[in-house]
Amino acid sequence: MAARSARLLLSAAAAICLAGCATQWPAVGHEIIDCCTSDTSGYRTFRLEVGPVPAFLAPFAESSLADALTARGLKRSEPADLLVRLSFDQISLDEAVHADDFEGHLEPGGSARFIARLTFEVSDRQTSKRVWLGRISRLHNVDPGEYMHAGRAAIALRGGFDNALAGFGKPLP
Fold it and tell me: Quick one: how far is CA 80 from the chain centroid?
């Protein structure tokens, strides 16, 4: 009986582990807009400037981008070889709501549907020449009362930045 319970417990634990490995974090798209015209392998340091990014998102976005750059052999310092600017924009996918002077409300309330984009531009600080431009984005369907899942968001942001920086720090072929 004890052996059967142990096998059952072991099987359940294995199933949970396998399900966890198969679970996908929220998808974050990436695009490399401009790259590969400069050899980025000689850069060693960067300075990160965070532009207009919502306050709740800024710490996650900043640390995820800094970690992705550090993983490519760069060190955050001042003075720096590179200036990295991070900015945010949002594209609403909701239809415009018509409101006239005779209605008692101006908005229907409820959910919002939008694409959130974080764009980063990497420039040589001596020449001001852009050496990389990338963007990560995610489609959001937000209902009232929902909140950001910080742990999953940080993992998804880091993965998106890693993908958008693919090839950065490698010599030109």
Answer: 23
Domain annotation covers residue 9: no
Residues 69 and 4: their CA atoms lie apart, in Å, by: 50
Is 68 in contact with 161 (CB distance < 8 Å)? yes
Paired tokens of 32: 């490399």
Does residue 48 lie in a domain region? yes
- DSSP, res 72: T
- Which structure tokens are listed for 94? 């909701």
Q: Is residue 37 part of a domain?
A: yes
Domain range spanning residue 155?
Answer: 25-93+109-164
Q: Residue 77: inside a domain, yes or no?
A: yes
- The CATH number given to whatever domain includes residue 149 is 3.30.160.670
Q: Per residue of the chain (173 residues), what is the pLDDT tens digit?
A: 554 443 433 333 333 333 333 333 457 888 888 887 778 888 999 999 999 999 888 999 999 999 999 999 999 999 999 999 999 998 888 765 555 555 544 455 667 788 889 999 999 999 999 999 999 998 877 767 666 667 788 888 999 999 999 888 876 56
